[in-house]
Amino acid sequence: MVSDDSPFEDVSADRDYLRVLLTAVCVVAVVLATAMLPVLSPGGTQSPMESLIPLPQENPFGEAGGTSTGGSGGQLGALNPGSQTSVGGSLDSGDSPYQSQNTEPHFTVTSSEPAYWRTGAYETYTGTGWDGRADPQAYEGAMAVDGMTDSTVDYEVRLAKSATSLPTVWRPKSVSRENVLVTEYGAVTSERPLPAGTTYSATSVTPPDDPEVLQTSGRDYPDEIESRYTGVPASTSAQVGPFTDRLTEDSDSPYETAVTIEQWLEANKNYSLNVSQPPEDDVATEFIFQMDEGYCEYFATSMAVMLRSQDIPARYVVGYSTGERTGQNEYTVRGMNAHAWVEVYFEGVGWVQFDPTPGRERLESEQQAMQNSSQEYSASESGSPGEEFAVGTPTDETPTDETTTGVDGQESQSEESTGTETSADETGDGDGASDSGEGQTVSESGEFVVELNRTATPGAAVAATVTRDGAPVEGADVSFNGEPVGTTGPDGTVSGTVPYDDELTITVDAPDDEASLAVPSVPRDSGRSFAVAGPQAQQSTNASYELNTTVSVSVTGEQVTGGEVTVTATVDGVPVRDGDVLLDGEQVATTDRQGRAAVTLPTEPGNVSIAVEREAVSGNTTVALERLSVATTPTLPLALPVSGQTVNATMGGEPVTNATVAVGGEPMTRTGATGRATVGLPLASSTTIAVSKYGQTATTTVGGLFVNAAAVAAALGALIAGTVVGARRRNVTAETLWEWLRSARELAVGALVGVAVVLDDLLGRFRTRLAFTLTALRDLLAGRRSPAALLDALRAWVDTRLSAAGDAASGAVTAVSATEPNGDDGTPAARVTIREAWTRFLTHVSLRRYWTRTPGEIATHAIERDGLPPAAVRTVRDAFRAVEYGQRDPQEHVAAVEDAIRTIEAAARQQSGATDDTDDPTEGRA
C-alpha cells in the first residue's frame, strides 16, 4: 500500500496508454535480448538455453569408466575420455572435442621436453568407435616400464579445467598424486573429477623413435599383444585388408608398413573439421574409400585399422598435442589441442607414437582459431618418428620453415608433393613388379637369368630365382662369394644371406652337367627387383660388384655419464648381426639378430666413440657426454645468511631434472622440470651448494654472506639514523607516533561505521521505493493508473529529490562559512580557546613564515631562539596537536593551555622590558 507522502496519486485508467506501454516494453526486451546473446552464448556456438541449462544427455563431469562421446563442444576436451568413445561427427553437432576450436586453456605444463599429453587409449574397434577395458588399478607408487627406453621426461601440470584423466607423457613411470588409478593402457585416472587448479608432477620414460632402430624390429610379438591389438570386424577386414595388402606389398618391415600407410593417408586425405556425419557401420572403411577429408579421429582410426589388417598391433590413443610454448620449458595446452593418434607396437621396443593427421594443416587451423580470438600463435610438434612440423614464428628449437619433415628427414607427401598419388582405386594389379624394368637386362635364348627379390645388402636375406628362357631352373646350385647357399627348387628359387663383404659374386652351377656360370649383381640402387643375364652355357665368367659396407650406428637411451644405452647397427636398414661393438676401440658387446647391443657409457665427461664392425662392414658414431654444471642466484638482491638461493643445474645448456641439491654437504631438495630448485642458506659466512646426478657432482661456493649482511645492516642503520634525525628536527616523538596511530585507528573505525550507516539508510530507502514502484506497476496493469499519471508522479519525485539536494548543498555552504575562526559560529568554546591560545603564542615567535613549519618546528624555534619557557611552549604545542590533529576533547586541555599562555606572555614581556633597558645606551643624552 502506498503511503500518504508518495507522489503517485490515483488517476483514471486508460487502456490505450496501457497497450502502448506494453508494446514499448516488448520492443525494449527484444533489443536487450539481441544485445545479450553473444554474452550469454559461450563462443557463439551454443544457444542461450544450452549455455545456461545443462541438457539431460550431457554429463558435465563424466565419471571415470563411463561412456564418453566427448561432451558437447568438448567442455572437458580429452580430459575425460572414458572407457568408450565414438568416432567422427559433424562440426554442427559439436559432439566431438577433437573438432573444438576453443582457445581456452585446459592445462599448462612445465616440462623438460615437449611431448604429446596422453589421457586414454583403446583396443577394440567396433566399426563406429573404440572400446577399452574399464578396470583400472590403484596407483601404488611406481609403474612398470616395458621395452626399450630413450629419454626421461620430468614435467609439472596445472589443470585449468576439471579432469578425470591426468595428462601424461607416454610411458608414465611415476606421478605425485595419491588416490589415482592406472589403466592397463598406461593412462592415469581419478574416480572423482579433479578440480581446476590441481597440480601434480610426473616422470615418464619415452620409447625410441629413431627410424634406424624401428626399422630392425620384426614380427615376433608377444601372444597377448598380438591377440588383443590386431583384430578388426570381419566386414572391415574384407574391404580394408586387400587394399592395404597392395599398398604395402613392397614394405620389408612393420616400420616401413606403418610409414607407407601414414604417408598414403597424409597424401590422399585432406584435413578438415567440417565433415559430414559418418555412417553407422564402419568409419574406417568409409574414410578410406569414400571420404576426401576428415580430422584426427578419422586419420587415427583408419591407420590403426589398416595396420591391424597387416597383423601389426596398433591402438587408438587420445589426449592433447604439444600446445603452444609460452615460456622457458612451459606449454599452454588449449581445448583446440585435443587430439587423437596411433600407437604401434614394435618387437623389442614397445608402443611407439604415430600421428597420421597432416600436422601442418592442423596447426594452421589452430593458428586461425587463435587469430580469430585476436591472439598470435606459434607451435612446433613431432608427431611420428623422424617427423617435425611447425607453424607461426619458429622458436630456437624448431625448423626455420613451415614444412612437414617426414621419415629420415625427407619431406612428407602433401598437397605440394610432386610424386604420383595413389588412391584406393589406383594401386595397380598387385603383381609385385612395381620396380620391374628398372636397370634389368632382358635375357636371350640359352641364357640363365638370376633375379633377386630385393637390393643386395650385407646381412640381408634374399631370394634368388634362376630362370632360362622365362622358365624356372630347378636343381641349380647357387653360391654367394663361393659359399653355397642352396639348390633351386621347382620354382627356380633359393634363399640366402648376402655376406658381410665389400663385393658380391653370384655363381650358378647348372643342373644336368650344364656349364657353370658366374652372375654379377646389378647396382644396389637400380631397383628392389632386378635380373642379371649370365653368359652362354658353354662359357664361364666371374664378375663382382662392390657392396655398401658403411654401417649406420644409432644410440638410444640417455646419453649421459654412466648411462645404459642401446646401440643399433644397420646397413641400408638391414641389421648388422653378430657385429663387434667397440667403445673407444675396446670391444664391449656383440649385436643380436636385430643389430642391437646394450652398452654402458663411461663415467667421465667427454667425447666417446662407439663403433660396430663385422668383417668388411663397419661404422661409428661419437657421443658427447656433457659435464654437469651448476649456477646459483640469490632470491634477494644480495645473498644473505638464512635467505633463499635459486639453483640451476644444466648439462650442455639443457636443464637437468630430478638432480639432488645439497647445501653444506646436506641433501636439501631436488631440481624440478626446469632444472631449478630453491634452497635456504645457513647462518654462516659462506657455504657450498652441490648438485649430483649421473655420477657427477658440480659444486659452487656462495661466500661473503656476513659481509653482505653487514652492508645491509649499515644501510638500514643509516636509514634509521636519517629517519631519527629528521624526526627530531620536526619534533616527532614516540608519543606523537602513538597519537598518530591511535588517530588512524579511530578514523578507520569511524569510516566503517559511517559506511555502514549510509548503506543501511540506502537499503531502507531502496526497500521503500521498491514497494512504491511495485504498487504503481500493479495499479498500471490493473488499469487503476494511466502511464501519464505515472510519468507525472515520477517527475514530481525527481523534482523533490533535486530540491532536497539543493537544500543540502546550501546547508553545506552555510556550514562551511560558519566554520571560519571567528568564535561566533557555535564551535565549542574549549576548541576556540585552544586556537586562540595558539594564535597568541605565534605572536611571540620570531618566525616570519610560520605557516610553512610544523607545530613541533615552531615550538623548537620558540624555545631555542626566542627563549620562551620550554614547559609552557610544549603544553601549548601538545594541546594544539591533540585537538586539531588528533580529534581529542579540547576541554581537558583548556586550563593547562590558559596557564601556559599566560606564562609565555609574561616571559615575553620580561624579555621585551630587558631589551628596552639595553637596546640604546646613548638614549637620553644630549
From TrEMBL:
Residues 916-926 have a biased composition (Acidic residues). Residues 288-358 form the Transglutaminase-like domain. Gene3D superfamilies: 3.10.620.30. Residues 373-384, 393-422 have a biased composition (Low complexity). Residues 96-110 have a biased composition (Polar residues). Residues 40-110, 193-219, 234-254, 357-445, 477-496, 906-926 are annotated as: Disordered. InterPro entries: Bact_TGase-like, Papain-like_cys_pep_sf, TgpA-like_C, TgpA_N, Transglutaminase-like. It comes from the Archaea. SMART domains: TGc. The keyword Transferase does not apply. Keywords: Membrane, Transmembrane, Transmembrane helix. Residues 63-76 have a biased composition (Gly residues). The chain crosses the membrane at residues 20-40, 705-727, 747-764. This is Transglutaminase-like domain-containing protein. The lineage of its organism: Archaea, Methanobacteriati, Methanobacteriota, Stenosarchaea group, Halobacteria.
